[in-house]
Amino acid sequence: MRKLFFLGLLMLSIGARAQEDTTEVFDYSKFGDAEGVKRYATQKVLNQVPQRILSIGYEYQGGFDMPGVKMGPMLPAFEDFRVQQVSAIKAQANIPVISTNKVIWQMGANLWSSKFGIENPGNNLFASSLNNTSMTSAGINSTVFKPLNERNFLIVQASADMNGVFQNLSDVNAKGLTVSGTLIYGWKTSEKNMIGTGISRTYRAGQILHIPVLLWNKTFNDRWGMELLLPARGHLRYNFSTTNILQMGFELEGNQFWMNQPGSPNGAVFVQRGEMKPRIIWDRKISGFFWLSAQAGLRYNWRFDVMNEYDARKDTQRYFTSRLGNPFYFNISINFVSP
Hints:
This protein has helices at 2-25, 125-132, and strands at 52-61, 64-72, 75-99, 104-119, 135-147, 152-165, 177-190, 193-202, 209-219, 224-230, 233-241, 244-260, 268-287, 290-298, 300-307, 318-321, 328-337.
């Protein structure tokens, strides 16, 4: 028994010495200095609404007046109409092509198709054409988020859209194409605050504009934050939780749409449609990466100018202008979001 006891002590002593020897030869200098690792700014702030990768939704606008519609290209008379509703399908995709800490590149596509239900369009060429088909915008886009270091970043975005009131596929032509783009330089001052400024070419107000833009995403605390890309949109955010978010703000959207109009100077007109939407948005996680989004608000008519020329601005190029009424609207969508 005594031999076994001394044998156990000997084994413990050998094990301890082996452990001490291992510790002594372990060379930490072979590892890099953590302070020398270059870090890069991320594209989000804490508690931000998750980015949509795939989205499909339905929008409904209530009834409103459409006054002052020209009866025909050669007629000086105008008619007033009642739009019973506007129903729209909206879909978008933003697929990551490259996603690393040094660069994020996304390619996307979008669809916005609006069906105007006009009461008794009669023989009015414009009203009947709008009533019988959809006002459609479909396009592709690309966005690059390039962090320069831990604090500074660049955002480059470009898009091309085909827009029109197309009776059939043969109507689709280059005159319905619009090209937009945005360049932003910014600062990520913390995980709760990022701000940037730049310039944008946009048709969101229905008419081509070259304007300065302001990006500002900020989280004030666990509940409150804001997400701004002015003048396009801006929202105050309230987080019930990270998967249940309420926003209140606005968005400006629109484009220029080609429309066949026989008898007009060029055989077609261009509808410059812009809408301002003060709204409330509720986003909630359903399961996994699938979220439900519901919004309600007012569709305020920013612009509904019908022009004889592409990108026209002068009154001499105007076919007519309609001061559309401002209905309430709602929108619901299912979204597959990023982690």
